[in-house]
Amino acid sequence: MINWDAHACLPQHPQADFTPVQRLHAAGVNYVSLNVGADMNPLTQIMSVIAGYRATIAANPDRYALVASVDDIIQAAADGRIAISFDLEGALPLLEQPEMIPLYAQLGVRQIHFAYNRNNSVADGCHDLPRGLTPLGHSMVAAVNDAGILMDCSHTGRLCSLDIMSASAQPVIFSHANPYTLVPHGRNITDEQIRACAATGGVVCVSGLSWFLGQEHPTADDVARHVAYVADLVGVSHAGIGLDICFTQPELDDTPPGDFDPTYWWPASAGYSAERAPTFTPPEVWRQLPAALRKVGLSESEAELVLGRNMMRVAQQVWSAVP
Questions:
Q1: What CA–CA distance (Å, rounded) separates 307 from 299?
Q2: What mean pLDDT do residues 134-148 have?
Q3: Contact yes or no for 128/270 (Cβ under 8 A)
Q4: pTM exceeds 0.90 for this model
């Protein structure tokens, strides 16, 4: 069995400590997608982060494996290592060039969404005015498909996400998103979006973030409740886990350089507050998820689908499409 965490964040710093990744592995995670940057991070920072993460992985081959295929993940698990690839949150680091996408793939990026909460020239963010996928965005979707990268719609506006899912020739995922019906937050996704994702053959991976679960101190039971909603709506084959745990290391300053305004990316009008920071499920919640999923009515085999097999299926299809 492979446990698949579709999204986690270390500090956006080349010297980030990978101890949290070891905690995930100790809790039973076999694969994790690590974020390497978002729309608020300039390209210089993103490239520095990718270089630093790759160097840490290469320096610890007994612990980590940078992977490009599902077979690599299976082999890493057999070797007692945690498999890692990278994800990118936003299109600004693509510099309006679809040709950047296969370059990122060569560096280890296996998952990307096009907007981080705010609009750009490619796509709409979930906390901005709805326009839909732009003409450049259609070219970017094709480039993501051609590069064998998972097309993600987390943080993306409702209308734009529907456009992306309609345009994609491959299954589309939400790597860390929760049902809006359960918690009406702008970062959560509607039943229409969940159904559209399932129609592509994709997976909605539930986040463990307090704001989106509607609980101040979220637990495995809270995550399982949201998984059960997705499973009941579109079938258990389209539910997964992307806990979106953001690990901080106070000694490292990973604030984006330049004119960075956090209130722009996380606007108070959308319910964000500097005084009320989010909380995350700890990595150890992975040990509790099988039992929590059983409590909401999933069988053991269905829980295995949610915990990893669904994302393995989609990744096998998408990543294998690389020429």
A1: 12
A2: 98
A3: no
A4: yes
> Rounded CA gap, 193 and 18, in Å?
34
Query: Which sign, positive or negative, has the C-alpha torsion 51, 265, 202, 8?
Result: positive
The DSSP bridge partners found for residue 86 are 34, 109
Q: Answer for the pair 53, 107: CB distance below 8 angstroms, yes or no.
A: no
Return the ∠ at Cα 211 (arms to 203 and 30), rounded to 5°: 45
Helices (H), the chain: 19-26, 43-59, 70-78, 100-107, 135-147, 158-167, 191-199, 210-213, 220-234, 262-265, 285-295, 300-304, 310-319
Q: Which secondary-structure segment (H or E) carries 8?
A: strand 4-9
Q: Residue 24: which CATH number? A: 3.20.20.140
What the block records as the tokens of 20 is 């949290």
51 falls in which pLDDT band (50, 70, 90)?
Answer: very high
Max CA distance (Å), the chain: 50
- 170-206 pLDDT, tens per residue? 999 999 999 999 999 999 999 999 999 999 999 999 9
- Rounded Cα distance between 26 and 41, Å, is 30
Nearest to 41 by CA among 2, 108, 94: 94
Cβ contacts of residue 82 below 8 Å, gap of 6+?
21, 22, 24, 25, 29, 30, 31, 32, 63, 64, 65, 76
Q: What is the pLDDT of residues 98-120, one digit of tens each?
A: 999 999 999 999 999 999 999 99
Map tokens 């991070």 to a residue.
41
Alpha-carbon gap, residue 182 to 4, rounded angstroms: 24
Full domain range(s) for residue 37: 4-319
Count of domains forming the chain: 1
Scanning 208-270, the segments in alpha helix (DSSP H) are 210-213, 220-234, 262-265
- Contact status, residue 119 vs residue 125, Cβ threshold 8 Å: yes
What's at 200, amino acid-wise? T
Do the beta carbons of residue 183 and residue 219 sit within 8 Å? no
